[in-house]
């Protein structure tokens, strides 16, 4: 039994091993530092297993991010925890998961739990232990905080359903964008085994919504929805292929988020891309997140952003600006009369500022000063907008001219792409971004 195997390892040592093993899961970001309270301020920062994310109301919250075990029966070539790697191994017990969660919560380090796992013995064996931990946490300890659990493909339907009534969010990692990539790098996994639990969660969520309409006190099943994760750069798929896969997942499975994880070279294997010294493809990950926002919030279709002839995103311009430059016949847009759907396509206008424009223009004509107050990023929008038939400055509606001027704005790119900083997007599918954040996406 797992309890017998782990008696010689202290819970602190397990925490160190299993938080480090969880750092490659990009569903949330880690604090990465330890800083105690010196008595002059409020709060503290704990290194082990604390990740920061955002709730639906915009609050920054902290989650305990750990693996239940880094033991694994699979030998995925890209994974640090694969069976053939010689790394320190550890497994928590259900009681230890409860103890850690409650003790971290009582110290005000966390507000919730993010629990993933390797595969110990079998998917059902591992998920049964995770279920025991969550059940005890919810019933014995009465923990009502946020819980996100990673479901293991191959787990029985009955067990997944029981878990879904304990967790707020459930996710099943797609791992790689295509079935061919899985066969190459994760031969123990198949696309069918991965998609089956996604479909189960989707169907059960719909049934649960109907149950809640009939019985208000009905227990909620995965109320925060499901998400998934793809590794980017380990296999040769183009951005065109990846964004089409993401679009299909949103449409067919009703996912809340697709996460993109830049491939990190942690193993040596002939099937993996050769080391180049350039590090993970963070700029590519960044562009995919921007395109993902366009799919989810800006009513774009994947086929509008890329084509088979032009299958990868522009390294210098974000996907929305790139689309606008390829469709200059649509512009300039008159801000006082344009449809909401067209305003969303103007670089510099986010979905929040587009909504503000539509509401405000009912009461009078808008000018560029009004747009600035509403959060419109005029340094981008001025090339594509008119107010009462006039542009902000005399500009040419020419691709080369606008491109040169947009590049002079110097968009903030990931580290390694101009030396700028990079921020991983949030775990949650939240409408929380203000105008400052909109500038990086819109």
From TrEMBL:
Pfam family, one: Radical_SAM
InterPro entries linked to this entry: Aldolase_TIM, DNA_rSAM_put, Endo/Exo/Phosphatase_dom_1, rSAM, rSAM_sf, RuvA_2-like
Entry keyword annotation includes Nucleotide-binding: no
Coiled coil stretches, renumbered: none
Organism superkingdom: Bacteria
Family matches, as SUPFAM superfamilies: Radical SAM enzymes (SSF102114), RuvA domain 2-like (SSF47781)
Keywords annotated in UniProt: Iron, Iron-sulfur, Metal-binding, S-adenosyl-L-methionine
Keyword Transit peptide: no
Radical SAM core domain segment(s): 66-203
PANTHER family: ENDONUCLEASE/EXONUCLEASE/PHOSPHATASE FAMILY DOMAIN-CONTAINING PROTEIN 1, TYPE II SECRETION SYSTEM PROTEIN K
Name of this protein: DNA modification/repair radical SAM protein
Upper classification of the organism: Bacteria, Bacillati, Bacillota, Clostridia, Lachnospirales
């Amino acid at each position: 039994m797992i309890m017998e195997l782990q008696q010689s390892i202290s819970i602190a040592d397990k925490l160190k091993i299993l938080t480090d093993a969880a750092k490659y899961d990009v569903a949330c970001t880690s604090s990465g530092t330890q800083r105690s309270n010196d008595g002059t301020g409020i709060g503290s920062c704990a290194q082990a297993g604390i990740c920061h994310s955002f709730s639906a109301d915009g609050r920054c919250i902290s989650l305990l991010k750990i693996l239940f075990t880094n033991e694994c029966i699979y030998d995925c070539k890209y994974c640090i925890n694969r069976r053939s790697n010689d790394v320190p191994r550890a497994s928590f017990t259900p009681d230890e998961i409860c103890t850690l969660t409650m003790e971290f919560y009582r110290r005000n380090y966390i507000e919730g739990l993010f629990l993933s796992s390797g595969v110990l013995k079998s998917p059902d064996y591992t998920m049964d232990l995770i279920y025991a931990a969550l059940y005890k946490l919810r019933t014995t300890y009465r923990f009502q905080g946020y819980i996100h659990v990673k479901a293991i493909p191959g787990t029985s339907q009955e067990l997944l359903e029981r878990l879904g009534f304990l967790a707020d969010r459930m996710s099943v990692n797609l791992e790689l964008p295509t079935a061919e990539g899985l066969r190459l790098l994760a031969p123990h996994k198949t696309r069918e085994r991965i998609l089956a639990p996604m479909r189960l969660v989707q169907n059960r969520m719909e049934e649960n919504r109907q149950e809640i309409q009939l019985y208000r006190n009905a227990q909620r099943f995965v109320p925060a929805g499901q998400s998934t994760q793809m590794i980017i750069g380990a296999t040769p798929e183009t951005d065109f292929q990846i964004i089409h896969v993401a679009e299909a997942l949103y449409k067919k499975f009703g996912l809340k988020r697709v996460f993109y994880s830049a491939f990190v070279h942690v193993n040596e294997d002939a099937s993996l891309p050769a080391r180049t010294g350039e590090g993970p493809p963070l700029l590519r990950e960044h562009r995919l997140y921007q395109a993902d926002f366009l799919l989810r919030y800006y009513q774009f279709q994947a086929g509008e952003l890329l084509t088979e002839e032009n299958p990868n995103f522009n390294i210098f311009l974000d996907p929305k600006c790139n689309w606008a430059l390829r469709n200059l016949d649509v512009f300039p847009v008159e801000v006082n009369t344009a449809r909401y759907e067209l305003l969303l396509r103007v670089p510099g206008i986010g979905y929040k500022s587009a909504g503000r424009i539509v509401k405000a223009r009912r009461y009078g004509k808008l000018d560029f000063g009004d747009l600035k107050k509403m959060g419109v990023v005029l340094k981008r929008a001025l090339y594509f907008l008119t107010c009462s038939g006039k542009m902000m400055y005399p500009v040419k509606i020419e691709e080369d001219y606008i491109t040169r001027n947009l590049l002079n704005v110097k968009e903030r790119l990931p580290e390694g792409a101009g030396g700028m900083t990079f921020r991983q997007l949030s775990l949650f599918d939240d409408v929380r971004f203000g105008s400052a954040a909109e500038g990086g996406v819109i």
